[in-house]
Structures are given as C-alpha cells and as structure tokens.
Amino acid sequence: MQPLHVLQQYFCYEKFRGQQLEVIEHVLAGKHALVIMPTGMGKSLCYQIPAILSATDSDESNPLTLVMSPLIALMKDQVDSLRARNIPATFINSSLTRQVREQRYAEVGRGDYALLYVTPERFRKPDFLEVIRRRDVRLLAVDEAHCISQWGHDFRPDYTRLGEIRETLGNPTTIALTATATPDVQRDIVRQLALTEDDVRLFHEGIDRPNLSLDVVDAWQDDEKLEHILRIRGEHPGTGIVYFTLIKTLMRFSDKLWELEIPHLVYHGDLERRQRKRVQEQFMNEPEHLVLATNAFGMGIDKEDIRFVTHADVPGSMEAYYQEIGRAGRDGLPSRCVLLYDQRDLATQMEFMRWSNPDAEFYERVYDFLHHDLEQVHAFGIDWLRERLHHRNKHDHRLESALAMLDRHGVIEGSLSPLDIEVVAELPAALRDQERLDDKLKRDQQKLYSLVQYVKHEGDRKAFIHEYFGLPYSPS
Do 100 and 168 belong together in one domain? Predict the structure, then answer.
C-alpha cells in the first residue's frame, strides 16, 4: 500500500498538501524530521500515515508508533478520530481508572494497537516501561514539540527527558512537529532529542495564512472593547472566539452580552471538567457559536469555519498569539483576527509573568513546607499554605506555579486540585538555580516586549511575524 492510498482510503482526501508526502516518505525511509507547519495544515498525517503503513506492511514484528502529546483532551480527540476511521489507536494517561489503565497495558503488550498516545510523564511509571519494552517502537512522534524547549512558550520539563526516552525505546526514527518555533527553539528541540542538526531534516512550511487578515485596534475601557467585539461579530457572521486574560474580565463581558440578549458560550479553567467538555462539544458540533474564553480554550480546538478570533486583552507572547489566531479560517475562507490594545493590559501580563516565575527561595520554601508539614497542608488546605507563603496576599499566585512545576519535575505526585499529594523526590537543581530562573524571566519579558513591538508596528504585520520566527516573507 502506498501513502496516497492510505490518505484516500482512511482519511478521504484526494491528494496531499504542501510537504506532507515528502515528510512521510522521509520518515518511512527511517530518517528523523522536524516539521513546522501552520496550525490546521495536517501535521498529524505526517506520522499517522507512516504508522498505518508500518503496521500493515509488517506481519511479524507488530510495530508501534508512539505519540508524545502534552494534553489529555487532545489525545482523546485524536484517538476518537482515528478509531472512527477503523485505525487501531489508543491512549494511556491519568484520566483512566486503574482498571482501564491496566487493561490498556495488557492490550498494548499483546500488540492490539498501531498508535499509542502518551504524555512523557508516563515514562516515570515502571509498569508502563515494562509494557512498552515488549513492543517494537518503529516511530516516535513528538507532537507540540515546542514543549521540549526551555525557550518554548509551553515548556514541559519531562519533554527534556526525550533523549533518554528515545534510548529506552531503542532510538527509533523520530519526528517532532509544531506550528511555532523560533530558530533558537528549533535547535533546542534537536538537542533535547539527543540528535544533531545533521541527523534531522527540517521541513518548514512557513507560517503564512493568506486568508487571515490581521489588525490591531486601540481600545480603552470595557465599553469601547465591547463595541468593537459586536462590530467584528456583525461584520463576520458565523463562529468566533474572543480571548481574555482574566476570568473575572471574561465574566464581566459575559454579563454585558447577556444584558444585550446576545447568546454565547463561556470557557475557562475554573469550570468543572464536565462543563468544559460540554461547552467544547457545543462549540465544535453546533454552528455559529460565539465563545468567550481564556487560553484554556486551546489545543484540540480544530473547527474549520471560525470566522474571527478577537483578543480582548494583550496575549503574553508572539507564540501564544500566533497559536490562537491560527484557529481561524482553517477552511481557507477569509477570516479576521483583531487584537484590541489597551496599554494598561500590559500590567496584567507583567503580573502573570511574576506569578509564573517564582524565584529559587520561593521554590525552597514551598518544598520545605511540603517536606516537613505535609500533614498540616492536607488537613488545612492550600489556603493555609498560601497564607504562610504570601502573608495573606490572596492575589499572589506563585504557589500554583510552584506546585505545577514541582509536579512537572516529578518532585510531587497526586492531585493538585483538590490538593492531595506526596513528595517523591528532591528539589531539582533547575529550580534552585537563580541564574537560570532569572534567564527564564528575562526571556519571558523579551517575548512580551516583542508583542508590544508587533502592536506598534506600522508596516505589514505578517512580515513582522515572519521576521520574529526567522523566516523570509513574500506578500501574497
């Protein structure tokens, strides 16, 4: 069977787009690849088709394609889509009950699947390692590969173990995929995979989306922003997303829309999981919804006919901004992306930056409490711990960031919400190195400054974005 036959038989497309076929043939030849494609241009086919071909062409070794994915919700969506096409795929993650997880382990071990989706954190589990060593992992696909790089906008510490993980798997052919990566991030991705630039071929589709129009509009106060949101909605009927930084701001705008009897959906990280799922399913399956969302409404939103994406607040980086506007117009039809700029919003992003970058002393204090007073933390709750760390400042969210990083580094295990954890490792050097933490904060500040430069840019905004990502640009 040839790649084109798989594309037509399983995915119902008549032909490949851009460099897809070239990437697939490169991977099938056992060569490593770094693939950078605009959001919605079919990156996943670049490893899904080799996985299908590898499984159907091998009668003896029963090869497996292992997909590293950072988001549980994204895994489920992709696996559901593959299974609907009769492609043997599954996922294993923390959302499964112990009984279901053990059943999946048994099925993977006996060779029931061609594709397996996991997070890199799964490689901390000895029972998973025992299972995966029974399989012939031919291809390792690293989705959202910018998470590998400490300079990427969604760094995940466990992704830095991928070189070690590749060795555990027998150094399989590896394909890393992302929509956004500056030259520094590209080099770091290759390094973290324990490969050299000579080992890996870069396939760069560019980032241009000719059907998207990009605008920045100065807007002061809620009423002026609301006026622009309603005007954009009126000029571009259909499905749209309005992004907010703060949940309280989002809810304030939601109240104003309900006063005007304008129906809409609301999505943010404080919603219960079932409610978030219900809102996402409504948005994906029903026509012409307006959704007010924080950046929690992110990866996995693959709806073709989004006609506008509006940022009611300034995003934290060019990478985040590009990812979010990339959700518009995936059907190739004209779509509008508008950033409503209020200089005062920068203060919110600066505060977010401080919260997300605790210093070494703060990490040590949190670790000390968890190590010596965990019973009290469990008895009195996270607010008790916050009071002792923040001196009753309820608006300081460094504790949430610190706990998340301790979890990602494998220092603690268990539930962060509600808090029910155990300490399983020492505080890593990376969280005790103040110079390294200062460097991270400086880079975050530079990312926000680049976004301000984009706002102030008087020329072609697409040219600015291309220059930021180190790419040439030819206006369409």
Answer: yes
Residue 57 lies in a domain: yes
Residue 107 near residue 90 (C-beta atoms within 8 A): yes
Last residue of a domain, one of 344, 379, 400: 344
Instruction: Please indicate, yes or no, if residue 180 is contained in any of the structural domains.
Output: yes
Residues 368 and 316 in one domain: no
Sheet with 212-218: list strands edge to edge: 212-218, 335-341, 306-311, 239-243, 290-293, 265-267
- Contact at 8 Å (CB) between 121 and 158? yes
Q: Measured between alpha carbons, how far is residue 288 from residues 231, 263, 297, 315, 325 in Å? A: 16, 10, 17, 25, 17
> What is the edge-to-edge ordering of all strands in the sheet holding 89-91?
89-91, 115-118, 63-68, 136-142, 173-178, 32-36, 200-204
pLDDT in tens, 153-186: 456 667 778 899 999 999 999 999 998 888 888 9
Q: Centre a 10 Å sphere on the Cβ of residue 121 and count the other Cβ atoms it contains.
A: 21
Task: Give the residue among 45, 38, 37, 36 at the shortest CA–CA distance from 13.
Answer: 45
Read off the CATH number of the domain in which 309 is found: 3.40.50.300
**Token output for 194:** 């324990």
Predicted pLDDT of residue 299: 61
Task: Determine the average pLDDT of the residues in 373-383.
Answer: 91
Our count of domains for the chain comes to: 3
Query: How many angstroms separate the CA atoms of 373 and 116, rounded?
Result: 39
Same domain, 423 and 318: no
Asked whether residue 365 carries a pLDDT value surpassing 60, the answer given is yes
9 and 102 fall within a common domain:
yes
Residues 6+ apart with CB under 8 A from 291: 240, 241, 242, 264, 265, 266, 267, 279, 283, 297
Q: Do 388 and 303 belong to one domain?
A: no
